[in-house]
Write a structure and sequence with these properties.
mainly alpha, Growth Hormone, Chain: A, 74% helix, 0% strand, transmembrane, cell membrane, MFS_dom, MFS_trans_sf
Length: 458
């Protein structure tokens, strides 16, 4: 009886989604299975190349800056060139730049190529999210985004474990392996994923198309930009799991393996709970889900102020991971709901930029607060940010239309015609003087340099 119930639940979770979505899902999984740079960049630079933690922080910041810049450019490309060409360009560029990075020796060359890798690896995200919105029915989008998020975390969990063994043998093998997996991802997109961008409707000469969406249009969309700002606040909170948490655990005398044990709970819970939680939330009010998840995220990190052992740290990770499971697909669905079909690339690019910017700012924020005021103030700040974000969602989401009636129909379900395609996608903490003893600060810096590079999960 229990097995039959599980089979029914699994069938209902995956049923009704178009074949194109599953090929896109497969490309996402393959891409994340090959993730190496995001996991072991800091270790590679400090242990294998012998560079300082400060230099590793600079490279990580440049990698993040590349992602911030590419988000908007990739959004424009997604709308102008199409979803599929943008994904192919991004994936091929990522494969080449990651492979080149593995052979770089000069510090300036490493920093420059890392910046390019950050740009290329982030460029496919607006296109992937816009295509999913194109091909999936509005009532199924939260489920589709949840499944995609599940694939991201499953791939990341497997690749992190495998990359650890690969790194013991050769870091270069890891870079080359990621390049190969990214090429496989591009091949899947090229052979199996058709273009889904809606075609513009021809108008009379001298008449401006109603779907002429520019970046300035996105910036003038007050409600959407409010959501982007709130997304930035929420992302700042979640990023502390990868930049503030390891430093706090280090100052408590815990080791890198202790941090690995605590943060592994995040990946395990997402893989185990994302699908059943999605079944629970997919037909519930997204406004309420965003408010609740923001509060739980903020106070989940706030509870870290009371942690002192690996077990308690792991319990706090459980709390904010539940918020992450609910928030990520719900927030992506709201972004799609607020985006016109013909401007999804630009809107998704702006949303992706909020996470990329948070990944860039979060290490600086955590380093400054911990160095000057202590870790407890950082966790208190997270609680405040979660409260502010919840209040912001409550204000912005009032009078929001129903997602099914407001969202445009997917491609192939009565929507605007689409273009036919016959051809078969821690580090860097501030170093200002503080009141902590020099030995304690040096120990924290060494601990931080050993942690993986945080990458936005969008």
């Amino acid at each position: 009886m229990y097995v039959a119930g599980l089979r029914k639940a699994a069938h209902e979770t995956v049923a009704g989604l178009p074949r194109e979505f599953w090929w896109l899902w497969t490309s996402t999984l393959v891409n994340r299975l090959g993730a190496f740079v995001a996991t072991f960049m800091a270790l590679y630079l400090t242990l294998d190349r012998g560079y300082s933690a400060s230099y590793a922080g600079l490279v990580v910041a440049l990698h993040g800056l590349g992602g911030v810049i590419s988000s908007l450019g990739a959004g424009v490309m997604t709308d102008r060139l199409g979803r599929r060409p943008t994904m192919l360009i991004a994936q091929l560029s990522t494969a080449v730049s990651v492979a080149v990075l593995g052979f770089m020796v000069h510090p300036g060359a490493i920093a420059g190529v890392a910046f390019v890798v950050g740009m290329a690896s982030n460029a496919s995200r607006p296109a992937v999210q816009a295509m999913m919105a194109d091909i999936v029915r509005p009532e199924d989008r939260v489920r589709a985004f949840s499944l995609n998020y599940w694939a991201i975390n499953l791939g990341f969990a497997v690749s992190s474990a495998a990359a650890g063994f690969i790194a013991e043998y050769s870091y270069l093998a890891g870079f080359v392996g990621e390049a190969v997996m990214t090429l496989v991802c591009a091949v899947v997109v090229f052979l199996k994923v058709p273009e889904s961008r809606p075609e513009a409707v021809p108008l009379a000469a001298g008449t401006r198309a109603p779907d002429d969406v520019r970046l300035s249009t996105v910036l003038r969309d007050g409600r959407f930009m409010g959501v982007v700002g709130l997304s930035f606040l929420v992302a700042l909170i979640f990023q502390q799991g990868y930049v503030g948490l390891p430093v706090a655990m280090g100052t408590d005398g815990l080791s890198s393996s202790d941090f690995g044990t605590a943060i592994a709970v995040n990946g395990v819970l997402i893989v185990a709970l994302q699908i059943p939680v999605t079944r629970f939330i997919q037909h519930r009010d997204p406004r309420r889900l965003l408010i609740i998840s923001s509060v739980v995220a903020g106070y989940g990190f706030g509870l870290t102020a009371f942690a002192g052992s690996v077990g308690v740290y792991a319990l706090t990770v459980c709390v904010w991971t539940i918020a992450e499971i609910v928030n990520a697909p719900t927030q992506t669905g709201i972004v799609v709901q607020l985006s016109p079909a013909h401007g999804r690339g630009r809107y998704q690019g702006m949303y992706t930029m909020s996470w990329s910017a948070a990944a860039l700012v979060a290490p600086l924020m955590s380093g400054f607060v911990i160095d000057h005021y202590g870790a407890d103030w950082l966790w208190g700040t997270c609680a405040v940010l979660g409260t502010v974000a919840a209040g912001g969602y409550w204000l912005l989401m009032r009078n929001l239309p129903d997602p099914v009636t407001a969202g445009s129909a997917p491609v192939g379900a009565g929507s605007a015609p689409v273009t036919a395609t016959a051809t078969p996608d821690a580090v860097g903490a501030a170093s200002a003087p503080s009141g902590r003893p020099a030995a304690e600060q040096a120990s924290a810096e060494r601990f931080l340099a050993e942690q993986p590079l945080a990458e936005p999960k969008v």
